[in-house]
Amino acid sequence: MTAPPKRISGQEGFFWKTKTLEEMSDAEWESVCDGCARCCLEKLEDEDTGKIYFTDVSCRLLETSACACKDYANRSDQVPDCVRLTAANVRTLNWLPPSCGYRLVAEGRDLYWWHPLISGDPDTVHEAGVSVRGRVNGKEDEVSIDDLQDHIVQWPKMLPKTAKLKRPPRA
């Protein structure tokens, strides 16, 4: 019995399908970020199980309305535990959301319709309900570490139904 032919995605030929993460230019690498800012949420890890819990508390440098870092170039100096995504670590970080562009590319999967590289519009990630815009309920310097467990949320690990579609919903 032969395997079914590989489905053509419509994204074949684009740089994220023809290059490895390691081969991308800096500009290409940065453009793979969808701008959701889910990775900028504070996370808790169960020491016994290793399970990761997302909170609705963000890094203090996150500009939540724009879903962008206020000091991206110096973020590691400002926030020493800020994790810089690299071609090596996106393949091993267990807390990257399933919709993360870096994760999808590393796994050889297609980007979603709302990703700015597909839609041509950086606002579609917000319109699809994927970003943290309007969902953050505090910053790390405003919420005590002892209170973080009261801020655990499930939505960063899930996608809204419309975001899962192969193409944008019709208006």
What structural category arises from helix and sheet content? alpha+beta
Tally of helical segments:
7
Count the E strands: 5
Tell me the series of helices and strands, N- to C-terminal.
HHEEEEHHHHEH
Descriptive report:
The chain has 171 residues and is of the alpha+beta class. It has one domain. It is built from 7 helices and 5 strands; from the N terminus they run ααββββααααβα. The strands form 2 sheets. Strands 1-2-5 form a 3-stranded antiparallel sheet, with no helix packed on it. A two-stranded antiparallel ribbon has the order 3-4. The longest helix has 7 residues. 23% of the residues are buried. The mean pLDDT is 92.
Brief sketch in words of this structure:
By secondary structure, the chain is α+β, with helices and mostly antiparallel strands. The protein has helices at 15-18, 26-32, 75-78, 101-106, 116-119, 124-127, 161-164; strands spanning 41-45, 52-58, 62-63, 68-69, 152-153.
